[in-house]
Amino acid sequence: MGKAGQPPTVLVVEPRAEDLERTRLLLGEAGFRVVPLTRFDAAMPLFEVIRPDAVLLAAQAPDYSAVQVARRLRQMSRGTVPMLYLVDSHDMDAYRFCLEKGQCVDIVSRGGSGAELAMKLHAQLKLKHAVLRAAAGEESGTALALHDPVTGLYNRPFLLALIGQEVRRAERYGGTFSLVAAEVGGYGPFRKEFGRGMAERLLVYSAVVLGQTVREADAVARVADSQFALLLPGTPAESVPEVLSRVSARFEAARFQVEGRVVRTTLELGAVSFPDAVGTPTQLLAAALQELRRTREFRRTVGGPTRLSV
């Protein structure tokens, strides 16, 4: 539900009148209230007036106005309003552009099924509302400690609560989600050489890189000393390799400076997807970490040990 118990309001910005009407009908059938718009220059004034629960932006060449509008709307809403790009399924250039330049906003196929679109919107709204409820203390009567004190990311207990909610949602309404485990390679030797303070700076740096890489609908948490986890609502198993590739590429391009030297951070990754993997939230997180360890052992076998390079 949206504000005051009403159906969620979705602002749809789509220059193609025929596609706009189709999307409006699909979302209307799925229980959303739709505010249609054909002009990107009118999106921000209308956004301020209606304060929608979510936004859909059609992204296409040559100007990709959707990306510029998404940037402004995220600033205006301070990242609290979920957004999606609508991209033609055959337009790989637009898909790559949104993936690389799109402010980590998720992508859905334009002209795809209404079920896929509704599922992604519901997943983003559910996660947003779960965070707000937990922060307000509605889950237990007292405000939950949500964040890791070192990195500012969500902590392990809160991530497990979010996973539990995703399991219940997927079991009740169908759909899927994925869980990615990540570990900074060579963290132990790095901490031994440079000390705790510098090691914590590396963790903060890694947390920032992760936060800049994932979608706004995803939840990122620190779950152990040098381990992180990413909850990806609405992401099936077949989409996970692309996510892992994007995260790995971002870390390969990242640089962390220590004592005047540039350190290349490496990241080990593993993932599981529901319903291929089932169990309690703790079991699902353990399964993702197990996949991470398997990947690490395989890489050590074929390419030598994982470490931070200076």
From TrEMBL:
Database matches in InterPro entries: CheY-like_superfamily (IPR011006), Cyclic-di-GMP_PDE-like (IPR050706), GGDEF_dom (IPR000160), Nucleotide_cyclase (IPR029787), Rev_trsase/Diguanyl_cyclase (IPR043128), Sig_transdc_resp-reg_receiver (IPR001789)
Gene3D superfamilies noted in UniProt: 3.30.70.270, 3.40.50.2300
SMART domains, A to Z: GGDEF (SM00267)
Positions of the Response regulatory domain: 9-125
PROSITE patterns to which the protein is assigned, alphabetical: GGDEF, RESPONSE_REGULATORY
Pfam families: GGDEF
Residues annotated as domain GGDEF: 175-310
PANTHER family reported in the protein's UniProt record: CYCLIC DI-GMP PHOSPHODIESTERASE PDEF, OXYGEN SENSOR PROTEIN DOSP
NCBIfam families, alphabetized: GGDEF
Protein name: Diguanylate cyclase
